[in-house]
């Protein structure tokens, strides 16, 4: 199939040069342009490459969050943006790069085929295709299936302790000195260098790599069934998307933690970020916009998510991949071939793209707005309320707000609209409680559910969530389908809260402590 | 009476992987090489889209074509150059032209 393309190549160049409507590259002002980045900014092929590569390094250089020698996990989905990201890292690592990137990359691919009803064979085919692409990068890679969320530990929902790092410049100096010393001793083994730096790339982690790869081949059927059940229990596509996003982030976090990666690179483009900015506002996640769309997301404490592709539009990425033959793998997802109004996320994407077609500065305007957003004061004093984080997304809870807030208004309206229902059920409820204490149930199984521990737990489970995650959970038919680690952690937390209440009287207040 | 040939790739095309989303609407075929019927006026992209819609699209044409142009979010490359530089819908096709459609939409 590609041969034809090659055969046409010489002719193609002639025709493009003849027909670019006289447009030349705005940078070198010599070659004819192949791509219009913004209105009036036409680039030729070589200037575009330079611009693209420079932007990646500039984004990383400007933000200074990746320390030399640090292990960085590249989250690869197979799509164009993450493929371009992996390629950029490869480019930066290559010998002829003017300033080599100094971190140690690894790649993670999560197979989510189950969520959109793919057969085992189709998934195998996708995975082998991904494997082919990843093998060519030469980086260590992990292929993991989403089913693994069912074997995650509850600790994944606890915030890690951020590693104390010295000043960036000092770290870089130290790294340089170490590298020089290494050069003198003639030892060029990068692994040893890392071991000196205290980064864990031991053989054991290599073994755990193998373990991940082998388990991903055949996820247990029970887990696949559970996953199907979980996604079937979500009533809307919007909730399915959010659920998938949550589970995926937990799995990425887990792999990053177990394999010793302290940074994760996620390949969201600025087009995608503007879409998620709008959809997150609509989903009630406005309080976390700086975390969800910013360059560096440090909500997990020990593992930071960074988004180095956020300066590129999808158009630039698509052109780069096409012009410089970056392989990507197409894998159908939840939103393949769905109606435009099937989910909030889809609708926001259509909205942004339509506006962008008529007003080419839409994406950049929305994106620049997101850049100006800052973490709210809730997160600023995170030291004091570190424990109060959403059970699912681990963002600082946005539900502790004053009486005169939109949140309380919705709570009250929700309560009132339930009141009618409650009245209807009231006798059953009160009698249910009393009879349960006696150890027997006086009502049928339908009413009996009321005094089941799970039903009693439901309100406290919801209390542990942020507003956005509450809406997602509301769209789930039952909480039982959620993976065990979520339920365990919820139980763990509620027990802690209870315990805290019990011993509250004996605890010294911080202010009191200071007085003594 | 000129016979027009062009290769018709769908998706992010690379030497190895020839998939990228939009092909799902075309019966899973990524690359089409078609001969357009002769007509008195030269073919332009606008007419080509109508022709594709009638002859190649297997399902859900609105996911690919909306109005008389492509759905917002689908990029068009004419001989590996941005169609915005080539006059978009008014570009007149020539023999052996190579048109690529790339979907930047999530989910293909």
From TrEMBL, chain B:
UniProt-recorded Gene Ontology molecular function terms: protein tag activity
Cell compartment(s), UniProt: Cytoplasm
Primary localization class, coarse: cytoplasm
PTM comment text: C-terminal thiocarboxylation occurs in 2 steps, it is first acyl-adenylated (-COAMP) via the hesA/moeB/thiF part of MOCS3, then thiocarboxylated (-COSH) via the rhodanese domain of MOCS3.
Pfam family, one: Urm1
Presence of the UniProt keyword tRNA-binding in the record: no
Numbered residues of crosslink Glycyl lysine isopeptide (Gly-Lys) (interchain with K-? in acceptor proteins): 108
Superkingdom of origin organism: Eukaryota
Modified residues (1-thioglycine): 108
Pathway: tRNA modification; 5-methoxycarbonylmethyl-2-thiouridine-tRNA biosynthesis
UniProt keyword terms in alphabetical order: Cytoplasm, Isopeptide bond, Signal, tRNA processing, Ubl conjugation pathway
One GO CC annotation: cytosol
Signal peptide range: 1-19
A biological process from GO: tRNA thio-modification
The protein's role, per its UniProt record: Acts as a sulfur carrier required for 2-thiolation of mcm(5)S(2)U at tRNA wobble positions of cytosolic tRNA(Lys), tRNA(Glu) and tRNA(Gln). Serves as sulfur donor in tRNA 2-thiolation reaction by being thiocarboxylated (-COSH) at its C-terminus by MOCS3. The sulfur is then transferred to tRNA to form 2-thiolation of mcm(5)S(2)U. Also acts as a ubiquitin-like protein (UBL) that is covalently conjugated via an isopeptide bond to lysine residues of target proteins.
Family listed: Belongs to the URM1 family.
Protein name: Ubiquitin-related modifier 1
Species the sequence originates in: Xenopus tropicalis
Gene, per the UniProt record: urm1
């Amino acid at each position: 199939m590609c041969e034809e393309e090659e055969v046409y190549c010489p002719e193609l160049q002639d025709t493009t040069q003849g027909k670019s409507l006289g447009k030349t590259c705005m940078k070198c002002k010599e070659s004819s342009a192949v791509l219009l980045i913004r209105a009036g900014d036409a680039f030729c092929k070589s200037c575009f490459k330079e611009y693209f590569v420079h932007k990646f390094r500039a984004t990383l250089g400007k933000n200074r969050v990746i320390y030399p020698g640090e292990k960085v996990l590249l989250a690869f989905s197979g799509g164009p943006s993450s493929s371009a990201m992996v390629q950029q890292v490869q480019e930066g690592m290559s010998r002829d790069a003017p300033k080599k990137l100094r971190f140690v990359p690894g790649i993670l691919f999560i197979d989510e085929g189950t969520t959109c009803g793919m057969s085992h064979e189709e998934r195998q085919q996708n995975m082998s295709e991904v494997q082919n692409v990843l093998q060519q990068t030469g980086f260590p890679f992990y292929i993991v299936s989403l089913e693994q969320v069912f074997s995650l530990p509850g600790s994944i929902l606890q915030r890690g302790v951020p590693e104390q790092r010295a000043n960036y410049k000092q770290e870089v100096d130290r790294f340089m000195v170490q590298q020089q010393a290494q050069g003198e001793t003639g030892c060029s083994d990068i692994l040893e260098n890392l071991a000196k730096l205290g980064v864990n790339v031991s053989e054991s982690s290599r073994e755990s790599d193998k373990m991940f790869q082998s388990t991903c081949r055949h996820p247990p059927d029970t887990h696949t069934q559970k996953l199907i059940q979980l996604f079937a229990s979500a009533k809307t596509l919007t909730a399915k998307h959010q659920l998938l996003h949550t589970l995926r982030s937990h799995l990425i976090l887990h792999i990053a933690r177990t394999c010793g990666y302290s940074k994760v690179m996620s390949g969201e483009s600025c087009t995608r970020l503007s879409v998620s900015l709008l959809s997150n506002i609509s989903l009630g996640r406005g309080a976390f916009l700086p975390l969800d769309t910013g360059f560096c997301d440090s909500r997990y404490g020990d593992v930071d998510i960074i988004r180095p592709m956020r300066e590129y539009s999808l158009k630039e990425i698509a052109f780069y991949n096409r012009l410089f033959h970056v392989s990507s793998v197409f894998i159908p997802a939840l939103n393949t071939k769905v109606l435009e109004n099937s989910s909030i996320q889809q609708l926001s994407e259509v909205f942004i793209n339509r506006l962008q077609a008529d007003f080419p500065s839409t994406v950049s305007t929305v994106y620049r707005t997101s850049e100006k957003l800052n973490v709210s004061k809730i997160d600023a004093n995170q030291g004091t309320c570190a424990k109060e984080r959403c059970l699912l997304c681990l963002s600082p809870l946005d539900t502790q707000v004053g009486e005169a807030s939109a949140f309380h208004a919705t709570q009250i309206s929700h309560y009132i609209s339930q009141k009618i229902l409650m009245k209807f059920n009231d006798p059953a409820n009160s009698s249910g409680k009393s009879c349960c204490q006696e150890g027997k149930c006086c009502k049928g199984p339908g009413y009996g559910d009321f005094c089941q521990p799970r039903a009693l737990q439901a309100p406290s489970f919801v209390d542990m969530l942020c507003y956005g995650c509450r809406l997602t959970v509301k769209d789930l038919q039952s909480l039982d389908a959620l993976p065990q680690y979520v339920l365990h952690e919820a139980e763990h937390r509620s027990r802690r809260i209870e315990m805290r209440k019990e011993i509250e009287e004996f605890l010294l207040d911080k202010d009191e402590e200071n007085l003594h | 009476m000129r016979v027009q040939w062009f290769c018709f790739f769908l998706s992010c095309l690379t030497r190895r992987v020839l998939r990228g989303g939009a092909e799902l609407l075309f019966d899973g075929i990524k690359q089409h090489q078609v001969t357009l019927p002769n007509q008195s006026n030269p073919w332009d992209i606008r007419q080509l889209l109508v022709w594709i819609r009638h002859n190649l699209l297997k399902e859900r044409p609105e996911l690919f074509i909306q109005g008389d142009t492509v759905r917002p979010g689908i990029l068009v490359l004419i001989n590996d150059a941005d169609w915005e530089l080539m006059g978009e819908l008014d570009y007149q096709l020539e023999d052996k032209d190579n048109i690529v459609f790339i979907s930047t939409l999530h989910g293909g």
